[in-house]
DNA sequence: CACTTGGATTGACAAATGTCGATACAGGCG
DNA sequence: CGCCTGTATCGACATTTGTCAATCCAAGTG
C-alpha cells in the first residue's frame, strides 16, 4: 500500500545511474572513455568525436559526473574524465542474474 | 568530428533501455515483477505496492512496455506484465566487464 | 599585463516527462 | 442489456531535459 521501504533506496540509486545513461550521446561518451588508454580521456579528445557544440558536450559530461558515472580531474589546462567503476559495477549487479531485476534462472543456467 | 557511426546504433538502443529504467518507480516495478512467481505480475498486484494513482502506475508501465523492458498481455479482465529478458540481457552485456562501458580488467580479474 | 586557448557556466527556448483527476473502454455479471 | 470493476487513455499543469549561442573563467604564452 505504502511505497516499499528498504528497496526504494537502492531503486533510487540505480535509477539515478540509469537516468544518466539514458541518452545515446552519454552512452557514447562513457564508451569512448572506456576505450581510451587507462580509461581516461580529456575533454578535447572527446570533443573531436562529436559534431556538436562544446557547451552541449560539457553539459552531458556534467550530468555523468553529477550522477557518479564519471569523475572529472583538472590537470593544468585540460580536464580529464575517467569512469567510476563502482557505479558501473552497481548497475551490473542490479542487472546480473539473481540481482534485483534479473531472475537467477537466466542465460547462464 | 562527425558522430560515431556503427556504435551509435547500439548506443541508441542501450540509451532507450537505460532511460526507461531511469525512474525509481520503474526500477521498483521491474523488481517486483522479477520477484513474482514466474516473473509475471498483474496490474492489480503491482498497484497494491504503490501509493499513487492508478493512472500514474499505468503510465510508468506503458513506458517500460514501449521500451521493451516489459511485455503486457491481457488475460480476461486483468493485464499481466512480464520481463523481457532479452532487454535485461542487452543492458547486462553493455555493462559487463569487456562490454562497451566496462573495461575487461574489472572486478573479476 | 595583453592575448589566446580549453572548457565551464548562463540564458533562452522548445520538447519531453511526471503527476493527477477525469473520462473512456473492455470484460464479466445480474 | 445495464451495471460494476479493472485498466488504459486524455487533458492540464509544473518540472525537467536537451540544444545552442554567448559569456565567463583559468591556465599558458608572449
UniProtKB/TrEMBL annotation, chains A, B:
Keywords: DNA-binding, Transcription, Transcription regulation
Database matches in Pfam families: HTH_5
HTH arsR-type domain residues: 6-103
InterPro entries (UniProt xref): ArsR-like_HTH, HTH_ArsR_DNA-bd_dom, HTH_MetalResp_TranReg, WH-like_DNA-bd_sf, WH_DNA-bd_sf
Gene3D superfamilies (UniProt xref): Winged helix-like DNA-binding domain superfamily/Winged helix DNA-binding domain
Domain of life of the native organism: Bacteria
Record protein name field: Transcriptional regulator
Gene designation per UniProt: arsR
